[in-house]
Design goal:
alpha/beta; globular; Hemolytic protein HlpA-like protein; Nucleotide-diphossugar_trans
């Protein structure tokens, strides 16, 4: 393996250790670790943060370790955004894992091969290890293209991350111009994302990833998604920042093996059917759809 890995950690040494072990098996030559500081109103959190950082000292392979640890709590948005700014100041490209995203071993070569293949293709902004299609294979290839940049295990380049704008400076302008109507054909999706982006812009949602979605869409950027799920989110529960419910249909989806040699699509075209399912299940959930998913036994 030649690609650097960025590892984002916080206050969960139990999941951090599991993900670290997966990284250890991959043996990246460079490990860049980003950590947020403890919240002062959470008793015992400082000790948990320190325990998570201690795990990084277990690196026992030939690896350059760089750390960016905050003494104070910056929150999800500022810590991840500033941390990834630092990552891409140091490296041209990276595979990125958070402390609750447990990858299959084949996730690493999958990302590495595609980082190389699409390095100079500005249409591609991210490579994700996530598949939320509930067993539906979208083509005969190893992956497909999507507008949704799922980030439970992903990879990208400096040339893409340079477009990240934490302040969303152009939001009011593109909002008023009806930009989202050029992206979505249905009014419900337009309303959903306008609400999400507006609340994020106003600071009512403390997260970095909606901003990343916004920035990718401004560039008409695409994400590569595998036809099998390569990363399992093991962080659902009370200590999850945005993943509280263990009953969530996206919790603990098993990570599967990607077969090699990779089969590459002949054309770079977004898969509309896959994106439609994602919008309906992950981002917009009518009660009738939730009942259907439960009836089918997906939950």
């Amino acid at each position: 393996m030649k690609t650097p890995v960025a590892f984002l950690i916080f206050n969960r040494p139990d999941t951090t250790e599991k993900v670290f072990e997966a990284i250890r098996q991959a043996k990246p030559p460079k490990l860049l670790v980003v950590a947020d500081g403890p919240r002062p109103d959470r008793p015992g959190e400082a000790e948990k943060c320190q325990a998570a950082r201690e795990i990084i000292k277990q690196v026992d392979w030939d690896c350059e370790v760089l750390t960016n640890y905050s003494d104070v709590n910056l929150g999800c948005k500022k810590r991840v955004a500033s941390g990834l700014d630092w990552v891409f100041e140091n490296v041209e490209e990276a595979i990125i894992l958070e402390d609750d995203c447990l990858p299959h071993p084949t996730f690493f070569p999958f990302c590495e091969e595609l980082l190389d293949k699409y390095r100079d293709d500005n249409r591609i902004m991210t490579i994700s290890g996530d598949n939320f299609q509930f067993g539906k294979t979208r083509n005969k290839d190893s992956y497909y293209f999507s507008r949704y940049n799922h980030c439970w295990g992903w990879a990208s380049w400096r040339r893409a991350w340079q477009h990240y704008d934490i302040e969303m400076k152009n939001w009011e302008k593109v909002r008023d111009e009806g930009w989202l109507k050029d992206i979505f054909c249905d009014s419900s999706s337009v309303k959903y994302w306008e609400n999400i982006f507006q609340r994020t812009y106003e600071g009512k949602i403390d997260t970095w990833d909606y901003i990343w979605t916004y920035c990718c869409w401004l560039q008409n950027g695409l994400t590569i998604l595998p036809n099998v799920n390569l990363v399992s989110n093991i962080g659902f529960g009370n200590e999850g920042t945005h993943t509280k419910s263990k009953k969530n249909i996206f919790a603990n989806i098993p990570a599967e093996e990607m077969r090699f040699l990779l089969q590459h699509p002949s054309f770079v075209i977004r898969n509309e059917k896959a994106d439609s399912l994602t919008q309906r299940t992950l981002f917009y959930k009518p009660i009738i759809l939730i009942r259907l998913i439960k009836k089918l036994g997906i939950i």
